[in-house]
Amino acid sequence: MKIAIDAFGGDHAPTEIIKGVVDAVNAEPGFTAVLFGAEETVRAELSRYAYPADRIEVVDAPEVIGNDESPTEGVRKKKNSSIVKAFHALNTDDAYGAFVSAGSTGAVLTGAVLLLKRIRGINRPALAPVLPTVNGGQVVLVDCGANADCKPLNLVQFARMGKAYANTLGISDPKIGLLSNGTEDKKGNELNKETFPLLKEDASLNFVGNIEGRDILGGAVDVVVTDGFSGNVALKSCEGTALTMFEVIKQNILGGGLRAKIGYLLLKPAFRRVKNVMDYNNKGGAVLLGLQKIVVKSHGSSKAKSITASVLQAYNLCRAGIVDAIAGAMVTASEE
Amino acid sequence: MKIAIDAFGGDHAPTEIIKGVVDAVNAEPGFTAVLFGAEETVRAELSRYAYPADRIEVVDAPEVIGNDESPTEGVRKKKNSSIVKAFHALNTDDAYGAFVSAGSTGAVLTGAVLLLKRIRGINRPALAPVLPTVNGGQVVLVDCGANADCKPLNLVQFARMGKAYANTLGISDPKIGLLSNGTEDKKGNELNKETFPLLKEDASLNFVGNIEGRDILGGAVDVVVTDGFSGNVALKSCEGTALTMFEVIKQNILGGGLRAKIGYLLLKPAFRRVKNVMDYNNKGGAVLLGLQKIVVKSHGSSKAKSITASVLQAYNLCRAGIVDAIAGAMVTASEE
User: Fold this and answer.
1) Which A residues in the span 39-68 are in contact with B, Cβ-Cβ below 8 Å?
2) Model-level ipTM above the cut of 0.85
3) Which residue in the set A133, A226, A240 is minimally distant from B215, CB to CB?
4) How far is residue A318's CA from residue A301's CA, in Å, rounded to a whole number?
5) Percent of chain B whose pLDDT exceeds 90
6) Separation between Cα atoms, residue A95 and residue B163, nearest integer Å
7) A73, B10, B23, B177: which has the fewest C-beta neighbours closer than 10 Å?
């Protein structure tokens, strides 16, 4: 199995990307990494590390689609960008299972949707991060930003894809909640009110009803279904609050004199564990579900550790056969 | 000035509500509190406290609209409920400036929208909480749940109302951000894309552009404008994450042995300050803006301290003339 990696995507590219890929290759023997980027620079970086030489390939792709340019134009015009070349490789070479990038979200999503083949029955691919829950579990949020405007049918497909994803995480019959502005059955905007009965009637889903934003990390459901706009708002509100709390705790410790500083030193291991629990980016990226190949979008600020996690996540998703699982779930759906 | 209070709304009613009202009356001499609820019970509770006798009145309203019944039916059928009787008093007696309730959000919102007069030019009232920011400031979130489906015009009105609210908090020219799924100008769902140019063209607003969920508590803007569905998702995602973090910190301290426990004891004052900063419910309730009288919705779990804060908040908003300020902002809008 080959995994394509965008060597020039992200704030710390290419150094941290390449370091992360080398670590992934050395940690897991089951795949070949193919780095897409300016070949000379990539090879110079690679020369700093020890790894099995046949396990990392390089494809020259000197162009980069930046965060500040139109993703659609970038994908159309920059034929030699890492994203365009990698997606072409995924489409034409069956050996490729996945693509990992920490580059521009817009370019990765647009490129994937325009260039990669969709799974039959899926109208819209969706972006799904996995978040930590308070009880030590995990929850899949789908969609977190690929589709700002959705139809009820899209949300039902998101639920089925989210279920397939949760299955690969070892959750055999995931509880599925619809993100709403209240837990009562009749709560929601028009989209939610139309989606609710469709999810309820879907015999393949363990739909438990509406959930609120405060329930996302609460562990009561395994998959949260929502449109990409609300999902993005929810995800980033969670992120922002976690960052704010760390900052407010820091301010109060720094302003709390010697007593607080000693307290902080004693609690440092606990704080490190909390940061580790809350920082879902260290556990991989958001996965674009619904295409014939896996696309993992790492956070733009990803360092080597996150890239390693994302590459191993892509590998595990391919091994678990998530594309076939989603395709199977859609066949079941159309047969009902 | 009279302030009407729902004596039987909320998880800790009537005991904590009445205690909170007595504390507010004793703290601020400028208003009379009128408690709406089962008179005998209310008077029995009141007899436990010392306060100026002429500053608290009781209106018998024996019915309660519960969280589990249809708000519309409850408001229509329960003419003797505290909510219906209080709104009737607000509509007919000019002495009343505000209503405070910790009861069913649905019943309070539905009752207010159905029964209270709107400010001329406002199509939809909106619910606005004030949240703490990381730099010690405050941010108004409007709408957080009164309108699940909105039109661009509604959001422009929310921005004007949010500005008037921020003015009463001492922010003279509030920065206004539109909640979106990215910070770029072209980001957003259909609603946002149509709203963006309207906010930009509005000369009365200091519109700074799109913001993400992670910016809500970041302090870069003073007013966050959004539809009630996304606003509710954002608010509750922030709440849920704060609760989750406190819980994860607690678990890690309890599991961290003696060292962590001593650290915790030393950091206790700092944690208390953090909780105090993050718990916006202790600083009052969400305000329903756009009606001819102020409605403050306290959290259902409000104890006396939150009720006191909500009553004083209602008093301050009346004194600051927020209803006239919103009416003025709408006149300016229609004159442009």
Assistant:
1) none
2) yes
3) A240
4) 25
5) 77
6) 57
7) A73
Q: Do A213 and B240 touch (CB under 8 A)?
A: yes
Residue linked to tokens 């497909």: A157
Chain B hits for A148, Cβ within 8 Å: 181, 187-190, 192
Residue located via tokens 């859609």:
A330
Per CB-CB distance under 8 Å, the chain A contacts of B237 are 213-214, 216, 233-235, 237-238, 241
Classify residue B141 by its DSSP letter: E
Distance CA A15, CA A13 (A): 5
Q: Do B267 and A270 touch (CB under 8 A)?
A: no
A207 strand-pairing partners: A176
- Is B260–A270 a contact, with Cβ atoms under 8 angstroms apart? yes
> What values do phi and psi take at A175, rounded to 5?
-80, 130
Going from the C-alpha of B141 to that of each of B179, B235, B280, the distances in angstroms are: 10, 8, 12
* A 143-172 near B (Cβ less than 8 A): 145, 148-149
How far apart (Å, rounded) are the C-alpha atoms in residues B124 and B138?
24
**Separation of CA B86 from chain center:** 18
The amino acid occupying position B281 is N
Which of A 297-336 lie inside 8 A of B, CB atoms?
Answer: none
CB A64 within 8 A of CB A71: no
Size of interface A-B (CB pairs under 8 A): 209
Is B170's pLDDT higher than 60?
A: yes
Q: Tokens 């009562």 identify what position?
A: A184
Q: Token pair for residue A164?
A: 């397939």
Query: What tokens does B168 get?
Result: 């009463």
Please report, to the nearest 10 degrees, the dihedral formed by the alpha carbons of residues A40, A44, A49, A53 taken in order.
Answer: 40
B188 shares contact with chain A (CB less than 8 Å): yes
Kindly give, in sequence order, each residue whose CB lies less than 8 Å from that of residue A126, ignoring residues fewer than 6 positions away: A142, A143, A146, A147, A154, A157, A158, A161, A228, A288, A289, A290
pLDDT digit string, tens, across residues A21-57 = 999 999 999 999 999 999 999 999 999 999 999 999 9
Residue B224 pLDDT:
98
> Distance between terminal CA atoms of chain A?
34
Letter string b/e over residues A57-96, b meaning 16 or more CB atoms within 10 A of that residue's CB: ebbebebbbeeebebeebbeebeebbbbbbbbbbeeeeeb
| Residue B71: band (very low, low, confident or very high) from pLDDT cuts 50, 70, 90 | confident
CB of A189 less than 8 A from some CB of B: yes
| CA B40/CA A194 separation, integer angstroms | 46
A267 and B264 within 8 Å at the Cβ level: the answer is yes
Q: Compare CB distances from A234 to B213, B264, B269 and report the shortest one's residue.
A: B213
CA–centroid distance for B3 within its chain: 16
Chain A residue numbers touching B180 (CB-CB < 8 A)? 229
Check CB contact of A247 with chain B, cutoff 8 Å.
yes
A236 touches chain B (CB under 8 A): yes
What's phi and psi for A206, nearest 5 deg?
Answer: -90, 75
Per-residue pLDDT of A144-180, as tens digits, reads 999 999 999 999 999 999 999 999 999 999 999 999 9
Whole-Å CA distances, A321 to A38, A53, A96, A166 = 31, 27, 13, 12
Q: Taking the model in full, what pTM does it have?
A: 0.93
Instruction: Determine contact, residues B65/B75, Cβ cutoff 8 Å.
Output: yes
For residue A273, give the chain B residue with the closest CA.
Answer: B252
Q: How far is CA A38 from CA A6, A8, A13, A19, in A?
A: 10, 8, 11, 16
